[in-house]
Each structure stands twice: as structure tokens, then as C-alpha cells.
Amino acid sequence: MGSIKRSDESILVCVYYGLNGERLIRRGHKLATLLDCPLYILTVDQNPLDAFDAEKSGYIEKWTELCDELGVEKFIIRDNEKRPIQKVIAETARNYNITQIIVGQSAQSRWEEITKGSFLNVLLKEVPFVDFHIVSVKRQSVDNDNGNYEKGVRAYIIRDDEHYKITFTCPKLEHLEGIFFKEIGTDFDNGIFKFPHEHKMNEITVKEGYVINPYAIQPLFGKQIS
């Protein structure tokens, strides 16, 4: 506050869902403090604000409180947003003269797309004047449950007659993509499969490579299910 002039930098932190949002906001605040520059937080959702589920609304509330506590310049909520994420980020970056953008790389978040070439290339064309910080964030996972599971790996559930089984190579047929947490000390594919659906993480139990409750995921396999 004793500075005569703030730097020309301006930071935007993109948060989407989950506990990692707080970590990213604090990371952005630390950088903004070092650079003595304004900090903006952005979250984007296809649904209108009043249609957010309890979990998402809870995060919005926590992030709002944290932004107030840290003296964030503005918490930008872009709800009911149907455009591609990169368009929204680019527009926000231009509107607020952003020079640095921080996003989290997480398997359970659609911000993960930013690490894939096509998304990043589009974004760089949209906002060529911005520096990007892609922060690796810990997954909210069953890793924390007494250490009974190995580190999560990308996996897919496919239909096998009336059953559903797990595979670790991307199949050409209809599938469900997620993260598999294998139980420690088992030679079989026993564990928990987590996947995003309707803006939250869901989990199903896998035993010896097969989903033990196929009815839980039947509706997610579309019209192929009789």
C-alpha cells in the first residue's frame, strides 16, 4: 500500500470446481502481492447462477469470502455461458487488461483441456499478449482415505454384454472416461472409478475389472441400453 505506482501487470485466476479453487486463488494472490498488481478471479458455468447445485453454490460462497479476505480486485462469475471457455477467458483478459493467467491442471476439471494443444493454441491466438501459468493441483480423490488406494490413473468403462468393465486404453466404442484408484496390495483391478457427470464427481466400485453395480451407470450409455 506504500507503493507510489502499481506495476503494469494484472493477473487472472481461472477456477472451475472443487477445493483446488482456493489453492489457485491463494497462488494468484501470492504472485499479485509480489508484483504489486491487481488480481481477478474468473469462474465460468453453462448454467445460470440460480440453477447451481448446492456443491457449486457452496464453492462460489467460499471463493467470494476468500476474495473479500484477500482484497481481490474482482470475482467475475460468468454464468449461463454457452460459448467455448477460451472465448470467455480471452474476452475477460481483454476487458481487464490481463497480462498473466493462472489455471489448474486437474484430471477432474474441464480446465484440464488447456493442457491439450488445440485449446492452448486457440487461446494463445485469442490473447497473444498474456503469459500462462499452468499449475499442477492435487486431485480431490480417495487418495486421502487412509492411503488405501494407489495414485489415480486415467481409465475408461465400456459395455461388455450386460456388464461394464474397465480398460486403460481409449476405446473406439462408447465409453465413460474417468480416473481409477486401485486398491493397494491387490493383483486385480479392484478399486474406485471416479468420473464427472452433471457438474460433480461421481464414483463407482470396480471389482476384478468389472463395475459391481451396473445399474448405476446404465443410463449414461445412451440409447444403446435396452
Q: Structural class of the secondary elements?
A: alpha/beta
Order of helices and strands: EHEHEHEHEEEEEEE
Question: CATH topology of the largest domain, anyone?
Answer: Rossmann fold
CATH superfamily of the largest domain: HUPs
- For the residues shown, what is the average pLDDT? 80
CATH level 1 name of the largest domain: Alpha Beta
Number of self-contained structural domains: 2
Number of distinct helices:
4
Report low-confidence residues grouped into runs of 5 or more. Answer: 1-5, 139-147
CATH architecture of the largest domain: 3-Layer(aba) Sandwich
Radius of gyration over all CA atoms, rounded: 20 Å
Number of separate strands: 11
Task: Give a description of the structure.
- With 226 residues, the chain is α/β, with parallel strands linked by helices.
- The protein has two domains: 126 residues, Rossmann fold; 80 residues, no CATH class.
- Helix content is 24%, strand content 29%.
- The protein has four helices and eleven strands.
- The strands form two sheets. A six-stranded antiparallel beta sheet has the order 7-6-8-9-10-11, with no helix packed on it. The protein has a five-stranded parallel beta sheet with strand order 3-2-1-4-5, sandwiched between helices.
- A hairpin with an 8-residue loop joins strand 8 and strand 9.
- It is elongated, with a radius of gyration of 20 Å.
- The termini are far apart.
- 29% of the residues are buried.
- The N terminus is likely disordered.
- This is Universal stress protein family protein.
- GO terms for molecular function: phosphorelay sensor kinase activity.
- It comes from Ureibacillus acetophenoni.
- One of its GO terms (cellular component) is plasma membrane.
